[in-house]
Amino acid sequence: ANRSRMSRSDAKLLVVNGNMMITTRLIHLPKFMQKGDVLVVNDSATIPASFKGYLGNRPVELRLATNLHLEFDRFEEWRALIFNAGSSHLPTEKRGIPPIQVGDQIYFSRYLTAEVIDLESDRIIKIRFCNTHSSPLIQQLFRLGTPIQYAYLQDKLEVYDQQTIFAGTPASVEPPSAAFQFTWKLVNSLKVKGVTVVPITHSAGISSTGSKEQDQRLPFEEKYRISKKTGAIINAALEEGRRVITLGTTVIRAVESAANNGKVEAGTAFTTLKIDRDFKPQIVSGILTGMHIPDESHMQIIEAFSCRVEEAYQMAKLDDFLWHEYGDMGFFIRDSWQ
User: How far is residue 172's CA from residue 169's CA, in Å, rounded to a whole number?
Assistant: First the structure.
């Protein structure tokens, strides 16, 4: 999908469960869920993480990539990407990288600056914000920032375009977009079916650096928080042989990072877990996710659940599925699930 604001009441759903592979509509999702399933969602809100500023006299764009603080109420230090300024319709690969060194200051307003505290590559840096305004730093970030926007999107994104119905704690720099197509009506229909919906908080990081070489580092380490209540509900389901389904790839990364001897440990931590087709999930038996382009790291996560992803995607293409974060959805049940 190349537009963000569209009616998605007719969102499509690709379902792959063993030998069954069909396309239907998302409103029919409850038919494919089971009584007793636990659906884990990400309640992170998305911070406007793109900032126009000046490095000396040079106009630049800074994109926040991951928050370096474990605490969810701290926003001073970040891993970030820096590019020469340019239109959002111009791919960052074509924007160029400004010369930069440790100690440089990037200016965003009379009140907000960022100091470069480390260089990890030509475009990946670590920065520390300095806010001299009387209002908290998070308010300055929302006032001065705009959503990260990739060139394939035609519409200008607004902050509300990146929020899901579950959004609460401001933690992500890109949205946990698998929930975009969810409505409270759909959630209620799942609850009627007997599905328990529980939240975790995961700080979804940036999905592209503008460099194929640097993209190999993705995803960066990201923090997550699992409450004792959510952990207990998940563990009860596991003990009773019920399914745990995650809504989105951020959620599976958090839940599987918290796995210990087949159970989930509640708490707050950073995850460096990278899931590929060879990964064996301990906790999660199925994933609901958006339709990802084949060369994305998200695709490898899906391949950890099904060996029929390529075949399923061909079916989706024939049925005119929409791709990217504002597109249609897939539901993949782990091949080994009994």
Answer: 9
> What pTM did the predictor assign?
0.93
Which domains are delineated in the chain? 12-45+157-333 (3.40.1780.10), 50-144 (2.40.10.240)
Higher pLDDT pick, 94 / 231: 231
Query: 105 pairs with which residues across the strands?
Result: 115
CA 229 to chain centroid, in Å, comes to 23
- Residue 294: the pLDDT is 66
Other CB atoms within 10 A of residue 270 CB: 16
Write out the E strands in the chain.
12-17, 20-25, 38-42, 44-46, 50-55, 58-67, 77-84, 105-107, 112-119, 124-131, 169-172, 196-202, 222-226, 244-247, 259-260, 263-264, 267-271, 286-291, 324-333
The distance of Cα 280 from the centroid of its chain, to the nearest Å, equals 21
Residue 307, pLDDT above cutoff 60? yes
* Main-chain dihedrals φ then ψ at residue 250, nearest 5 degrees: -65, -35
Which letter does DSSP use for residue 293 in this model? -
Find the mean pLDDT for residues 17-46.
96
CA 23/CA 12 separation, integer angstroms: 7
